[in-house]
Amino acid sequence: MALSSDPGDMAMKRRTRCSTILRTMLGVVGLMSALQGGVAHADSATAERLFREAKSLMSQKRYTEACPKLAESHRAEPSGGTILHLALCHKEEGRIATAHKELEEAVQFAVRDKREDREKAARALMAELEPRLSKLSIVVVPEVMRLPGIEVKRDGVPVPSSEWGSSMPVDPGPHTVTAWAPGRKPFLKTVDLRGDAASGSVVIKAIDLDPAAKGGGEGNAVSGAAAATASDTGGGGIGTQRAIALVAGGVGLTAIGVGTAFGLKAAAAKSDSEAHCDGNICDDEGIQIREDGMVAGNVATSLFIGGGAAAAAGVVLFLTAPKGARSKTEAGITSVTVGPLGAAIRGQF
Q: Which of 77, 160, 266, 274 has the smallest CB count inside 10 Å?
């Protein structure tokens, strides 16, 4: 039987395929939004639990245990109240500069949230801490400044050149300053600032040449980058429909993986709540654990359903993609990258 070459039939097939691709893309976008929303909901519950635990520890003056919980709570769900409590916690720990910086952030939250009470409290505490701030200056002489690729760090954190020569607030205790440039030996010096309002300075006068250094490092890096670029852009593309199929499948598998993690969390919550519950009668902690578990279970169910649908759609699209080589001048997709909450498509369009 001869295959139909009717232009009307071919146009109808193209429209059908485009419609299928469009529906799949919209479904993937919806799943990614649901994935982000579910994670955000779970983060909110986690942040609240950590905040309550930290407040309890602070009331017992167990600041070393409380501060990390407050920091993690603020990371999960940034909040003006949380950052203010974190600053108070670090103040009690003796980390004055850290507390002062967090109070600056607390003021920004208070202004945004129109919380004059919090703004007033944060500014008052900042004024109290300022006379106690210890400061460290890192002076880089002009000869060293001009070295190509010069990098200065304090306690492993890069120090921008705008801060060189300025006295910057630091917490009391030892601080290590390092400097490095290509073809030079590392510079290292440690300064110990003890007590409140201590001050110190590190002067980087010179960074010695490293005889063992070889000049091929930068060239190798460039060659590696060029090779990676050539690999990414060379050869033929994988086709639009197959690229979308890979994205759909990748997002689907990611959703299933995250859903599994939430499912395990829900199961663990049920087990953890037993110590705080007698049947369906629970104390406050047991109620919170079960609520967290219910949220995790709902998120897991949604992600399993959406992830399975996206993965199945990806398989169908991949298997039904048109075969055949495309011309060198035809637009096409050369690579697809799928991450936990997103996807990227590279190509020539």
A: 160
Long-range Cβ pairs for the range 49-58 (8 Å, 24+): 49/288, 49/292, 50/76, 51/81, 51/82, 51/85, 52/288, 54/85, 54/89, 55/85, 58/85, 58/88, 58/89, 58/92
Instruction: Collect the ranges in the chain with pLDDT lower than 70.
Output: 1-42, 214-241, 323-349
The answer to whether the beta carbons of residues 259 and 300 sit under 8 Å apart is yes
Who's near 150: CB < 8 A, 6+ residues apart? 140, 144, 179, 180, 181, 207
Domain 51-132, what architecture?
Alpha Horseshoe (1.25)
pLDDT of residue 194: 94
**Structure tokens, 202:** 């590190």
pLDDT of residue 206: 93
Considering only CA atoms, give the Rg of the chain: 29
Q: At what angle do helices 96-113 and 80-93 cross, to 10 degrees?
A: 160
Whole-model pTM? Answer: 0.56
Residue 78 Cα distances to 74, 83, 106, angstroms:
4, 8, 10
Q: Quote the tokens at residue 229.
A: 């670029």
**C-beta separation of 316 from 244 below 8 A:** no
Residue 24: predicted pLDDT: 59
Predicted local distance difference test score (pLDDT) of residue 164 = 97
Domain 134-212: CATH superfamily is Carboxypeptidase-like, regulatory domain (2.60.40.1120)
What residues does each domain of the chain span?
19-41+237-348, 51-132, 134-212
